[in-house]
Design brief:
Elements (H helix, E strand, L loop, with lengths): L5 H26 L5 H23 L10 H29 L1 H8 L2 H12 L6 H23 L7 H5 L3 H22 L4 H22 L11 H26 L2 H8 L2 H12 L9 H19 L2
Subcellular location: Membrane
Protein name: DMT family transporter
Keywords: Membrane, Transmembrane, Transmembrane helix
């Protein structure tokens, strides 16, 4: 029987995670071509709940309340609202408006905001490697901003042309806050799978409440291509989360994080191969910005 080392297994899981997260961007881009962002968020969340709740029920014995403390439950719930509900709504809207290849590098800047929050809230120190990584991320985002402006109506002002970037930037801020709550929940003694179940469940309830309050509830067309793409995105994100956490369980961060940060480059490459040009226009500047952001995000992640 072929034996696989923990490091090699971790590398494989990290690559699976990066591919799965990249797949999310492509599937959402294809689905929102004719479908609605609200349906995308709801279907993806329902898939997340179904795919993580079932294993939790099977692998853990009741009472399930014993799996949590008040602190861990509140922490994972907050992470779900910020990372799975608010961030996902903003991210999917951005994918529909400016495309997957422009959205993904901006989303990758979440490590910049996570560093800022860690320094401000957890008294962590900003190292030279941190600073260099942040500079690279900012440079990459500047290129994305330039490319976004170039692809919009030239009669618009710089402020108007750059406005679409507010969506993925806000999503990146929310995702940057998410690890703080997740780490608090894990430190309180709750395992990853129950924590993910609370995150997905809370996000789904929160988004359903949002739809009711905003009177945005609509019938989801079950037999449509967009719904199928959203289901694929839901399965893909769940695989990404599970592979990511599993990789960290068996391999060191220095192996896992650089591979996970490859998502923007994978999105750019896969967009060229699989997405029609009318949906995604991937230029050399988009690829360059994705590369710069990947290098910067990797530096920040590894020095964190």
């Amino acid at each position: 029987m072929l034996e696989v080392s923990d490091s090699l297994l971790g590398v494989g899981l990290a690559i699976v995670g990066a591919l799965a997260f990249a797949g999310q961007f492509l599937f959402v881009r294809l689905g929102t071509d004719e479908g609605e962002v609200g349906n995308a968020v709801l279907i993806v969340l329902l898939c997340n709940v179904a795919l993580v709740a079932a294993p939790t029920v099977i692998l853990y014995s009741p009472p399930y309340s014993a799996l949590f403390t008040p602190t861990s439950f509140a922490s994972f719930a907050a992470a779900g609202i910020l990372g799975m509900f608010v961030a996902r709504l903003l991210m999917f809207e951005s994918i529909q408006r400016i495309g997957a290849s422009l959205t993904s590098p901006v989303i990758a800047s979440n490590v910049l905001f996570a560093t800022i929050f860690a320094v401000a809230l957890l008294d962590e120190r900003l190292t030279a490697v941190h600073f260099a990584g942040i500079v690279l991320i900012v440079v990459g985002l500047a290129v994305v901003s330039w490319e976004t402006a170039a692809s919009t109506n030239t009669s618009q002002s710089i402020r108007e042309a750059g406005a679409p970037l507010a969506l993925p930037l806000a999503a990146a801020v929310c995702i940057g806050l998410e690890p703080i709550f997740v780490s608090t929940g894990l430190a309180a003694g709750t395992a990853v799978l129950p924590g993910l179940t609370v995150m997905a469940g809370t996000a789904t309830v929160g988004f359903a409440a949002y739809l009711v309050v905003t009177r945005s509830v609509r019938r989801i067309p079950l037999r449509s291509a967009s719904t199928a793409w959203y289901v694929a995105a839901g399965v893909s994100t769940t695989i990404g989360f599970v592979a990511y956490f599993a990789a960290l369980e068996v391999a060191p961060v220095v192996l896992v994080m650089p591979l996970l940060q490859l998502t923007p480059l994978l999105v750019a490459g896969l967009s060229v191969v699989f997405l029609p040009r009318r949906l995604e226009r991937v230029t050399w500047r988009v690829g360059a910005s994705a590369f710069v952001v990947v290098v910067g995000a990797t530096a920040v992640s590894l020095s964190g």
